[in-house]
Specification:
SPFH domain-containing protein, signal, coiled coil, about 270 residues
């Protein structure tokens, strides 16, 4: 090719390269793409991560399929004590089988899917998973008292996940959607339940205080009774001591005696 002709073609080739580059979409890690043809039909072949796909004719729709997080908030399930939980929030994390993307997108109602916060990715089956998890949470919460839910959080998470998986299996979606994690972020009992619990604790503390007071009074009464019962014995021992002192004085065996100022056992002091 003559140099002059090559020089003329270079700008054109560069322009074509720029157009082709601008008209391509790269599928990122954790995503799967589907081609929407010029006639609005969907190509059933999934475009996998790392692939470049031209969008000059038709378009490429991307779907996030890995570690999709769904927030299910502001639930108010009924507890086993028939109280309504004030707030129950959780997050569901799930994955979509890459080979099931085309089927789920073309056969399921659009209301089953969601859109990422940035609006760039379609979250396959997000709304469906959120609804299934919500139903499971309401069912599992019925097994626990409001004040015991927080202590049983890990078990509640496990049971919710099992219920969601059961629903997916019944709907023949277990091989297409995998729920990897349920995280219960908040469980807030109703105010009336919390207030009642606080009153119960206060009453129990007061009862314990009164029980201690009763036991203390009982021990004091026993001590006084024991002293009263031994009063005669103490008097007898005092009399015997006085007698021994008198005998010692009479026998000349005692030269010095230290006695209390009110001692009246030997002589009749007037």
């Amino acid at each position: 090719m003559p140099k002059r002709l090559a020089a003329r073609l270079m700008p054109a080739l560069s322009a074509v390269s720029l157009v082709l580059a601008a008209g391509c979409t790269r599928i990122e890690t954790g995503e799967v793409g589907l081609r929407i043809n010029f006639d609005k039909t969907t190509d059933p072949t999934e475009r996998l991560p790392g692939s470049f796909n031209q969008t000059l004719i038709g378009d490429i729709v991307t779907f996030k399929i890995q570690d999709v997080a769904v927030a299910v908030d502001n639930m108010t399930p009924l507890a086993s004590d028939n109280s309504t939980v004030k707030d129950f929030d959780m997050t569901v994390v799930y994955n979509v089988n890459p080979t099931a993307v085309s089927e789920l997108w073309t056969t399921k109602n659009r209301t089953f899917h969601g859109v990422s916060e940035k609006g760039g990715d379609i979250l396959l089956m997000q709304n469906y998973v959120a609804l299934s998890a919500r139903n499971a949470a309401y069912k599992v919460a019925r097994e626990y008292e409001s004040l015991k839910m927080a202590d049983n959080r890990p078990l509640i998470e496990q049971k919710i996940r099992e219920n969601v998986i059961k629903t997916l299996t019944e709907e023949k979606l277990a091989d297409k959607i995998t729920v990897s994690q349920i995280q219960v972020r908040a469980i807030t009992p109703a105010d009336v339940i919390v207030n009642s619990a606080n009153e119960l604790v206060r009453a129990q503390n007061e009862l314990k205080t009164k029980e201690v007071e009763v036991q203390t009074a009982k021990k004091e009464a026993e001590r006084i009774a024991a002293l009263n019962a031994n009063a005669g014995a103490i008097g007898y021992m005092n009399a015997m001591a006085n007698l021994k002192i008198a005998e010692g004085v009479a026998a000349g065996k005692v030269h010095t005696i230290v006695v209390p100022y009110d001692f009246k056992g030997i002589v009749n002091a007037k």
